[in-house]
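Form 7-S
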Amino acid sequence: MPLNNQIAPERRDWSYLVLNGLPPGPGVVFEEVTLDERIGPEAVALLIDPKPDDLLASLSVNLNLKAGILATTYGPVLFLIWWTPPIVNGRPSALYEQVMNPLYIKTSEVLRRLADQTHLHVLLSDTVDQVLTVFEYKNTFGFDRIRAGVDGARLAWPGPDDFQRAERAYEQEYDINKLLADEHGLTSS
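Output:
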């Protein structure tokens, strides 16, 4: 049975949440956080945006996810492209890339936790380690399918990997705009 982690409406002051050691620049990382003591720890997405004003101006953000696993000479790479409409000149108004090692067992574990929750909480932060707001989404992102792909990649990969080199190869060989356009019919620019 999935963890019902829907937050009560009165729980909306996040000023007490301070994050330590955020990666530099925009992006998304998964973490385990307790947002509500009645629910306990849950997996959340930390969305880091140095210029969060557009997201903060919205009462709700239509968050979309495109995920896939791509093979490089040095190993597979799991990419998650988080984006929000509207599409302007063939590009989403906001776009965040998350790259993970599908061969790392913790990747599968965090995806399992995410798949087993009824909601995804996205904690918006700028670059000063302060949570500015929390967006709550019904969990329809397909984390169970993403996890199945990760588990399959781990079984299929024939030998050792070098994820740092795989990530660099991914960045050189694949264009984020093309990856996103391939599924959603967006035009690349």
